[in-house]
Design brief:
The complex is a heterodimer of chains A (about 325) and B (about 325).
Chain A lengths: L1 H10 L4 H19 L1 H4 L2 H26 L7 H19 L7 H32 L4 H20 L4 E2 L3 H8 L1 E2 L2 E2 H19 L1 H11 L1 H6 L4 H27 L1 E2 L7 H11 L11 H20 L4 H25 L1
Antiparallel strand pairs in A: 1-4, 2-3
Chain B lengths: L6 H19 L6 H26 L7 H19 L5 H25 L3 H20 L11 H8 L1 E6 L5 E5 L1 H18 L1 H11 L1 H6 L4 H27 L10 H11 L11 H20 L7 H19 L6
Antiparallel strand pairs in B: 1-2
Helix pairs in contact in B: 1-12, 2-7, 2-10, 2-11, 2-12, 3-4, 3-5, 3-10, 4-5, 4-10, 6-10, 7-8, 8-10, 11-12, 11-13, 12-13
Classes of the chains: A mainly alpha (about 325), B mainly alpha (about 325).
């Protein structure tokens, strides 16, 4: 009795989570069947926990933008700009001088703050354009995405920035108690966002605005301000993803992760987020993320080319759209 | 509506002012060589923009057409080399049909599953490009292997001149194809029932279907039209630069959408004109190409394009502003 009510609460009202779990198990079974000796290795799952977080955080950011019926096409631009800005900062203070570990840690901290700061600032710009100037989210973030990527090109001149301090790389490559640091960060971020969306006024308001913007305004919700906050959040999350990405690869470049945009949208939609607004859960996005990471790692082991994996991602997106349409037409 | 309040007039004024400023910074802007070059750069983006304009008027958006253009170009040229076919007309028909077929795919998903066009076209674009690069190939077909007729066709000049330094330059005849397509699109949008149905669908889909427009047919037409134009532009692009690179056009969709929005089309549908789009395309191409003339570092190009999108959309959002919601 107790168990079933807890399960019901976690699964929620929609059958979406259940469907996702089934997809995940199917993908897992298929991949284990296709590469029995290589897929089921500890090493494979460990590497997934390193690659997954940056994409997962971007997908959660995308979901937050979709809650109000918007979209954020600038997340990848923000992520790269955040990593590059920190990289430029490290080059200006650390290279050439041998400093004590304390100083390096301090500089790394400043670098993280700078990266998160630029993410927040980028989010403020998006929020301002969308909620105050009333530009459609698609076009506003398309434009700012170009600006952020463009600024990243201007800062680097094109090539990648390499040589981050060890403490920075620990964020993307390290281990805490045998678990990947980025994975722990992902769990913390996902948990925080989940609480924010379900337990705070801001989160509930965002859902209500997404469900019916007009009714939300007549009910006295401060729509503009809430949408503004939601884009600040996506900017901040994108910057966190940027820090993890540059920490993992020990490099930052203006065109890293270009295919992440499609993948983040795909994971958000697959996770049960309604792009028209009003519906989206962190748990759904997280399960969708795991399903797709298993899928892509399996195909990589099968030596599919990256182009074909892009094809599979796109095909999966279309398949999910069709599936969701059929499920909704049942009711 | 008087002439002065039309958005096309305002865009033309801004364009004219920008031309004068660029000309003042570097008089070389006004040289025939540079102007002909600018017109030439308009052709491909412009033809694609006509398709995106029609999609936007219908209230949709398309980000997959660049992948379709690459697929149409690469497949057609590969096929021409394989069969040894020498000719110009049929390959362009083939490329157009490939684009049209892929566009129908977009329309099918958008109509059948009632999904947001942006997400559908992101998916189809990724599928088409993934298949093209993963299965057909990634190697560039260079000038040695390119069908010579295509190159010769695209080389046709309207005017040929010799500059003071002795180099030849000319105005490409491809500009006529572009302007011809623009004229046909304009007449179609303004004077045919099918053209008006696109405006009706974009303005108010529910009302359009209530008064008896076949919204399904309109939707299919719109995305097929955009795909067909992209396919045609793709092969023309390959012919004009004398090589076929399957990775071409990546990221170009942003420029094209920016140009259409700059030309006064509304992303909510129901508004937009061919003349505005022609001006928007010229403006975008001119600003991008003139950065070098104005001695601005080319790394700033993307920032400038982004700024143009923001300014143009802010202006149209202000024009289309609604109260409350």
């Amino acid at each position: 009795m107790q168990n079933s009510s807890i399960a019901k609460r976690i699964l929620g009202q929609d059958r979406n989570i259940l469907q996702l779990l089934v997809i995940t198990v199917l993908v897992f079974a298929l991949m284990s069947y296709l590469n029995p000796d290589k897929f089921l290795r500890y090493y494979n799952f460990e590497s997934i926990t390193y690659i997954m977080p940056e994409l997962g955080i971007l997908a959660i950011a995308m979901m937050i933008a979709m809650l109000t019926g918007g979209i954020d096409l600038s997340v990848v631009g923000i992520a790269n700009l955040a990593g590059i800005l920190a990289g430029v900062f490290f080059h200006s203070v650390i290279i050439g001088t041998s400093q004590s570990t304390g100083m390096v840690l301090l500089y790394t901290g400043i670098g993280v703050l700078m990266a998160l700061g630029i993410g927040l600032l980028a989010g403020v710009l998006n929020g301002f354009l969308i909620s105050k100037l009333r530009i459609t989210p698609i076009l506003a973030t398309l434009g700012t995405g170009q600006i952020f990527t463009g600024l990243a090109v201007v800062l680097t001149g094109g090539p990648a920035i390499v040589g981050f301090p060890d403490a920075w790389n620990f964020i993307g490559n390290g281990k805490i108690l045998g678990i990947a640091t980025p994975f722990i960060l992902f769990v913390v971020v996902a948990g925080a966002v989940a609480i924010l969306l379900t337990r705070t006024t801001l989160g509930v308001n965002l859902m209500l605005i997404g469900t019916n913007p007009r009714a939300a305004i007549f009910a006295g919700l401060r729509k503009d301000r809430m949408i503004f906050y939601s884009y600040m959040m996506t900017g901040l999350l994108a910057a966190i993803a940027g820090v993890i990405l540059s920490g993992r690869t020990n490099a930052a470049k203006s065109d890293y992760g270009a295919s992440y945009l499609l993948q983040a949208i795909l994971i958000a939609v697959l996770g049960g987020t309604n792009p028209a607004g009003g519906k989206g859960r962190v748990l759904g996005v997280s399960i969708a993320l795991i399903a797709l990471m298993l899928l892509s790692s399996g195909f990589q082991i099968l030596r599919f080319s990256n182009h074909l994996i892009d094809f599979i991602w796109g095909g999966f997106l279309l398949l999910v759209i069709a599936l969701n349409a059929f499920r909704n037409s049942d009711r | 509506m008087t002439l002065f309040r039309r958005s096309e007039f305002i865009i033309a004024c801004i364009l004219f002012a920008a031309m004068i400023i660029i000309g003042l910074i570097n008089p070389a802007f006004w040289s025939l060589d540079n102007l002909f070059g600018l017109l030439r750069s308009n052709v491909i983006i412009g033809i694609m923009a006509l398709g995106v304009l029609v999609v936007m008027i219908s209230g949709g958006i398309d980000v997959s057409f660049t992948a379709f253009a690459a697929a149409a170009m690469y497949l057609t040229i590969k096929l021409m080399i394989y069969t040894g076919y020498e000719g110009v007309f049929l390959p362009f028909v083939a490329a157009t049909l490939i684009g049209l077929f892929l566009g129908a795919f977009n329309a099918f998903f958008i109509h059948t599953f009632r999904m947001i066009p942006l997400i559908v076209t992101l998916g189809t674009g990724s599928v088409v490009r993934g298949l093209l690069l993963g299965l057909v190939g990634t190697s560039v077909i260079n000038i040695d292997k390119m069908p010579q007729q295509l190159i010769a066709f695209a080389k046709t000049d309207l005017v040929s001149l010799t500059s003071a330094t002795g180099t030849n330059f000319g105005l490409t005849a491809m500009i006529l194809i572009y302007l011809g397509l623009a004229l046909v699109t304009h007449l179609f949008l303004t004077y045919t029932m099918a053209g008006r149905s696109i405006f009706a669908l974009g303005g108010a889909p529910e009302a359009a279907s209530r008064v008896g427009f076949n919204t399904r047919r309109t939707l299919f037409f719109v995305y097929c039209f955009a795909g067909a134009l992209a396919g045609f532009a793709g092969l023309l692009h390959g012919s004009m630069i004398w090589l076929a690179n399957p990775r071409d056009f990546a990221g170009l969709e942003l420029d094209v959408i920016a140009a259409v929005v700059l030309g006064g089309a509304s992303i909510f549908g129901g508004r937009g004109s061919v003349i505005g789009t022609l001006l928007g395309v010229f403006m975008l191409v001119m600003v991008k190409n003139s950065l070098i003339i104005m001695k601005v570092d080319t790394t700033w190009q993307r920032v400038v394009v982004g700024l143009i999108i923001i300014v143009a959309t802010a202006l149209t959002a202000w024009r289309d502003r609604k109260k409350l919601v």
